[in-house]
Structure prediction request, 680 residues.
Amino acid sequence: MPALEDSIRFVKGIGPKKAALFEKLHIRTLRDALETYPRDYEDRTVLTRIADIAEDGKYAVRAVVGTEPKTTRIRKGMTLVKCTIFDESGSLPVTYFNNPYAAALLRVGQEYVFYGRVQANGHTRMLISPQSEKVSPDAEHPGRIVPVYPLTAGLTQRDMARVSEAALAAVPGDWPDPLPEVLRARYDLPDAADALAAIHRPQSAQHVADARRRMVFEELFLLCCGLQQLKERRRTDTGLVFSDAPLSDFFAALPFSPTGAQRRAIGEIASDCASGRPMNRLVQGDVGSGKTIVAAALCALAAKSGFQAAFMAPTEILAAQHAETLAPLLEKLGISCTLLTGSMNAAQKRAALAAIESGAAQVVIGTHALIQQSVHFHRLGAVVADEQHRFGVAQRAALSAKGQTPHVLVMSATPIPRTLALILYGDLDVSVLDEVPPGRQPIETYAVGENMRRRITAFIDKQIAQGGQVYVVCPLVEEGEMNLKSAEQHAVDLQNALPHRRVAVLHGRMKSAEKERVMQAFAAKAYDILVATTVIEVGVDVPNANLMVVEDADRFGLSQLHQLRGRVGRGTRQSYCIFFGADKGQTARERLKILCKTNDGFEVARADLSQRGPGDFFGRRQHGLPALHIADPVADLALMQSAREEAEQILQADPTLAGYPELCARVHRMFEERDDEAFN
Ligand code: ADP
Ligand code: MG
Prediction:
């Protein structure tokens, strides 16, 4: 009998080649396959008569193949296969694009259930590249509910079905259920093994719905148990006590006077740190609201109290930039700063590590290099995670573990609705920077189409002539996406269009040192235009840049575009943001228009949530929580609330979950999940 830890390589029909493709979906073992849930289901139990198909849509049709499939080659590498199918009500033409194999399986006179999209155009209708399943004439109920799994190029739904089938077969009869029985009874949830079977091999729509509800509850319950435990652990900790001497010298050293919101947040932090309990605070503030100096204040406080502070940024560029602005500021107060990033050479690293270990480095600014084993702090008292959504819970915890319950500050520019925040960040106190520094003019934002290309190029030229600088952002281009321009190509084109301007390129595949050099040079005005991928999405601060152009903006999420836009409007110059992609259909145009209407990140996030649906919003690990595979914290808010209440109850009675070994193990596994997403 196969075990769940077995590699999927041994599943019949899956060899090493396919296994490598499955790796791309993070599926290595049968257990991984078991936990890869369908992203959708096709309900083929409801059959439609051909005569009743009036509108575009997906249909299941039970019909007989009437004509021999005929192949035509319309151009190089492009084939069409056409045939006609019929039932007792009428006939329907079928066209397969570039899929001669599917069509070759069809036999004239044989009956199938076809499932696919019908394009209806006036009186003509056409079924496009349908899936088909043979049925024998006397079969009563041939339709099925068919799971649709996430795929990658080279894999088919059939491959996915194979491995999930094998995974289900490997589920032992005494499969342990992490959900306590009382909860299953209270919420009328099927047990774990039944639910898994139903998720992968549903018998009916109701069957799937029940199973999904169970899995969602389970996932949210595990999440809430884990968060609750984190919070509980901290509540009983005693915190380091920082000095409560006023920060007047810090404020005096700033090149500007802080906003009221910044003062308030700094005050909250100072009182947390003097309270005797460890601080866990989230600073939420729109891009450009000035979160950096709030964190700097915490670093100064730590140093003045005789502790070290660690400031973790998600990218090398950002870490270097923070070091550059904070070091002079803190050094004015007699506080020493050290940078630690992965790309430093061995000698630099050795020196930094020694300074960190001896305590000579009072404030350490770095990337996730800070959490490596070789880093030993002398007396770590405070930890900052900037752009916290880029870090997993595990990474933040690893940094905290470098000290003894240091004070923790996390900073986020991606706001989420309050009801959700209360649950998801239930263990954090929140400061909101709801005020931008004075003198900022709103960024004028426009959504344009290709027909504006020449005018925009001229506009770029004009802004540079007036002393400004320009960012041009291109989406990451994946292999095979022919119609999108890469950053490199775009830079060449722009340079040709504006030969008298200095154009630089920045993208994720460049070496860190090179990226940093380009960024520094841009900040020092050695370039006029920086063409980049989203490596500049977070935090980069070049106040002289006042125009941002985003290519193929329809490819980005609204919140991400807002983040990008936040790279300009940082100085006193009038700033502009131009989104190309308004000619890519009505949805794209409407989404981009939202950004043209508002500069408020909270409003943008709200629109983003309601437009994209929370699946995407949360799916990309925007919030540094363990990845959710099936639950949708917005759509499943009611279940989330129940899950949280139940988690609280259970943990109150049994804080270590000693009486629930399976639950305990699963919570651990969820929170240990490595966030191995590459940092760009
Ligand atoms: P974010 O919240 O996006 O991290 P930053 O901390 O990078 O914002 O600040 C954005 C810009 O605003 C920086 O150039 C910073 O020096 C400047 N800034 C921050 N606070 C103030 C203030 N109170 N007055 C004027 N400028 C400020
Ligand atoms: Mg920032």
Remarks:
- The chain has 23 helices and 21 strands.
